[in-house]
Write a structure and sequence with these properties.
The chain has one helix spanning 43-59; strands at 4-7, 13-16, 25-31, 36-37, 40-41, 64-69. It is α+β, with helices and mostly antiparallel strands. A hairpin with a 5-residue loop joins strand 1 (4-7) and strand 2.
Length: 80
């Protein structure tokens, strides 16, 4: 079990026993950045969503951001 450090009134670190440290993870994937969807470009919408996600990461104190995407340059996914 870990120990969290918390600031006391005088600025001294105080150990809080029994606290298991945790990590906030934000993961997103399968973005088709810059693609056209039914004749509508998606890049402007992506910028809006990316800004909202960045704000969420800050306000929720996210520790790690995982961003999975592929850039194949093709209009369809590769066959397996």
């Amino acid at each position: 079990m870990g120990v969290r450090r918390q600031r006391a009134g005088g600025g001294t670190d105080v150990a809080v026993p029994g606290y298991a440290p945790s990590m906030k993870i934000f993961h997103t994937s399968d973005w088709h950045i810059g693609r056209t969807f039914h004749t509508h470009p998606t890049l402007d919408h992506f910028r809006i969503v990316a800004q909202a996600m960045a704000q969420l990461v800050v306000t929720e104190h996210v520790d790690v951001v995982g961003w999975g995407f592929s850039r194949s340059g093709r209009g369809t996914p590769a066959s397996t």
